[in-house]
């Protein structure tokens, strides 16, 4: 059997489809939610889940939580979180995050694997058979490194990860089981550590993701942190009781979902204070507001208005907060669906996807999209997009490129991600070299660059010189994940700077074309046919060449192209002479039959 797993920041779940319906599998204590918490004792023994969560206050330094926030990231990406973490986080020489427990280092995928093993054991105990394969969900905005880290965690846990599925997409599958209506759905997923919004189209059993947006660093943990800072501001001096405070504010947050007031009680600090729902709402409103920006962006990308949504689905424990539901209802103009347990809906959808892969349901198709454009660097620092943003995946695309310099034997392939026009404004994913290309005239080599994104969102890039068959490829697994600032701003910046970016691209492309024309002109001047030109023609070519060199220094792409055209007209007779000479030489001493 194939299980579906929601590997969450706060809680994780495992689900299975039986008799055509998905259900979440409970552990031996009857609990369906497994806290994503790991406790280590001095001997190296581990506790996972509820028993580990109980140790968070008593043994905070060796109790690990919210590990999902570190998946596929570098130390620089999470530095702002470190002061609020009771355990030790460091980095190795390659900036890969390490969590040290009793002198032993663990990577985020290793720690996530402990949680996956616990879910695997729970499923095996409940089903009475070994579980070898799984579908695991991730936030839609997880990049290649974060998806790869999740697959690595699955392998470490002894699971064959058949598919990585976006969490909002999984939620759409769960709701699709009992909602067969055609329409457009907004899936608002506000969990413990991440926020995602997806706009989905449902038609004749096909779920298509029209657009996605979100923030890999925004969730219920941020609400807890706001409350923790509120308490810390009222507690004199330094304190090591942050785990106890975190537990207290989390309970108050949950109480306020139903009550008008709640108490924050930290016995070890002899601290107690009441918090009213109005104060709580004012405190967290900026966080809730941050979720609405990506919602508007996703709607714009899908070409839809908020009132065109047929359904709005709420996913994630943070959507239980009344303010969140109210603000979402205000944005979309309709009450969101909350029929399914928001903590379970992603796991249920993962189980449905697992069932599809197992052959249990063949009348439903799922189409995901890539959230950011992918491309390569071309001459002059321009990003050439090969797979556009919001392309349905799995996806592949091929573009043909050539060389710019005579005799060039190596070509550097620089893989980029982002929406801007220039390399300096894009995110570098990887670089590799296509070597040993036979020396040829610039423009002669034909280099095919192929991009392939698999169903898990992992990118492979290959380059092949068509004349010689020289080949090189790379699988992109970048060390660093996107920071929250990059996630929020990359797409918005592309709109804000669109006009200036396009203008800069036009200038670079015009200069590249001018350089090519000048090189070709220089070759023509060295040809013996140049002597056949009149003095007037030679003077005109010299003047046009000088003018083009001067105007290339400006940022006026229109003027550059006009100068290119002028030089082209000036050298037209020379080009005809060179061409006629070449044809004459090629045909010399040939018989008519040979030409035919």
Short description:
The chain is an alpha+beta fold and 596 residues long.
Please specify the SSE layout and strand pairing.
Blueprint: E1 2-6, E2 11-18, E3 21-24, E4 34-35, E5 37-40, E6 46-48, H1 50-53, H2 55-58, E7 63-65, E8 88-91, E9 97-101, E10 104-106, H3 108-127, E11 133-138, H4 144-156, E12 160-166, H5 167-176, E13 183-190, E14 195-203, E15 206-215, H6 220-234, H7 242-255, E16 261-266, E17 271-276, H8 277-302, E18 311-315, H9 322-332, H10 345-357, E19 365-369, E20 374-378, E21 382-387, E22 392-393, E23 395-401, E24 411-417, E25 427-434, E26 447-453, E27 459-465, E28 471-476, H11 484-496, H12 498-526, H13 535-551, H14 557-570, H15 572-587, H16 592-595
Parallel strand pairs: 1-11, 11-12, 13-18, 15-19
Antiparallel strand pairs: 1-2, 2-3, 2-4, 5-6, 5-7, 8-9, 9-10, 13-14, 14-15, 16-17, 19-22, 20-21, 20-24, 23-26, 24-25, 26-27, 27-28
Helix pairs in contact: 3-4, 5-10, 6-7, 6-8, 8-9, 12-14, 13-14
Give a verbal description of the structure.
37% of the residues lie in helices and 27% in strands. It is α+β, with helices and mostly antiparallel strands and 596 residues long. It folds into three domains: 2-367, ATPase, nucleotide binding domain (Nucleotidyltransferase, domain 5), CATH 3.30.420.40; 374-485, Substrate Binding Domain Of DNAk, Chain A, domain 1, CATH 2.60.34.10; 499-587, Up-down Bundle (Substrate Binding Domain Of Dnak, Chain:A, Domain 2), CATH 1.20.1270. The strands form seven sheets. Strands 1, 2, 3, 4, 11 and 12 form a six-stranded mixed beta sheet that branches. Strands 18-13-14-15-19-22 form a six-stranded mixed beta sheet, sandwiched between helices. It has a four-stranded antiparallel beta sheet with strand order 21-20-24-25. Helix 5 packs across helix 10 (345-357), helix 8 runs parallel beside helix 9 and helix 13 (535-551) runs antiparallel to helix 14. It is elongated, with a radius of gyration of 30 Å.
């Amino acid at each position: 059997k194939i299980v579906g797993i929601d590997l969450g920041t706060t809680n994780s779940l495992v689900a299975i489809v039986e008799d055509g319906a998905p259900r979440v599998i409970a552990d031996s204590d009857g609990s369906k939610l497994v806290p994503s918490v790991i406790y280590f004792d001095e001997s190296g023994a581990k506790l996972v889940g509820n028993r580990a969560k109980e140790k968070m206050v008593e043994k905070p330094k060796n109790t690990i939580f919210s590990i999902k926030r570190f998946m596929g990231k570098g130390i620089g990406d999470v530095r702002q979180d470190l002061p609020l973490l009771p355990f030790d986080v460091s980095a190795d020489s390659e900036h890969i995050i390490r969590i040290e427990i009793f002198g032993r280092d663990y990577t985020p995928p290793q720690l996530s694997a402990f949680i996956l093993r616990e879910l695997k054991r729970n499923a095996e105990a409940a089903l009475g058979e070994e579980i070898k394969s799984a579908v695991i969900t991730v936030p839609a905005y997880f990049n290649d490194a974060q998806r790869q880290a999740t697959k690595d965690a699955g392998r470490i846990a002894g699971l064959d990860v058949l598919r990585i599925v976006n969490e909002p997409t999984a939620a759409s599958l769960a709701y699709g089981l009992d909602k067969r209506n055609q329409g457009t759905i907004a899936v608002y997923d506000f969990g413990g550590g991440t926020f995602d919004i997806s706009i989905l189209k449902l038609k004749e059993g096909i779920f298509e993701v029209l657009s996605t947006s979100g923030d890999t660093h925004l969730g219920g943990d941020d609400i807890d942190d706001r409350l923790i800072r509120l308490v810390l501001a009222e507690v004199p001096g330094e304190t090591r009781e942050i785990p106890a405070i975190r537990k207290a504010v989390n309970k108050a947050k949950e109480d306020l979902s139903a009550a008008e007031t709640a108490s924050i009680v930290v016995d070890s600090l002899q601290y107690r204070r009441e918090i009213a729902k109005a104060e709580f709402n004012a405190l967290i409103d900026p966080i809730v507001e941050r979720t609405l920006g990506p919602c508007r962006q996703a709607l714009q990308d899908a070409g839809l208005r908020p009132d065109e949504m047929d359904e709005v689905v709420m996913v994630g424990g943070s959507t239980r907060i009344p303010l969140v539901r109210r603000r979402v209802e205000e944005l979309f103009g309709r009450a969101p669906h909350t029929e399914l347990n928001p903590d379970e809906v992603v796991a249920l959808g993962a189980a449905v996807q697992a069932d599809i892969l197992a052959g249990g349901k063949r009348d439903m198709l799922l189409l995901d999209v890539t959230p950011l454009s992918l491309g390569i660097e071309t001459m002059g620092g321009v990003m050439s997009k090969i797979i556009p943003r919001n392309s349905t995946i799995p996806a592949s695309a091929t573009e043909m490129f050539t060389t710019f310099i005579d005799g060039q034997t190596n070509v550097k392939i620089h893989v980029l991600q982002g929406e801007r026009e220039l390399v300096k404004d894009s995110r570098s994913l990887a670089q590799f070299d296509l070597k040993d290309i036979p020396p040829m005239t610039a423009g002669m080599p034909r280099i095919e660059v192929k991009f392939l994104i698999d169903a898990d969102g992992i990118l492979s890039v290959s380059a092949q010189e068509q004349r010689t068959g020289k080949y090189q490829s790379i699988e992109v697994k970048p060390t660093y994940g996107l920071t929250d600032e990059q996630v929020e701003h990359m797409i918005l910046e592309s709109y804000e700077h669109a006009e200036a970016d396009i203008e800069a691209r036009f200038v670079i492309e015009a200069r590249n074309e001018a350089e090519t024309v000048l090189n070709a002109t220089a070759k023509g001047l060295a040809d013996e046919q140049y002597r056949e030109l009149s003095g007037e023609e030679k003077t005109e070519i010299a003047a046009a060449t000088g003018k083009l060199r001067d105007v290339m220094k400006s940022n006026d792409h229109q003027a550059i192209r006009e100068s290119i055209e002028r030089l082209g007209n000036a050298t037209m007779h020379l080009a005809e002479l060179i061409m006629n000479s070449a044809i004459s030489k090629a045909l010399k001493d040939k018989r008519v039959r040979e030409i035919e």
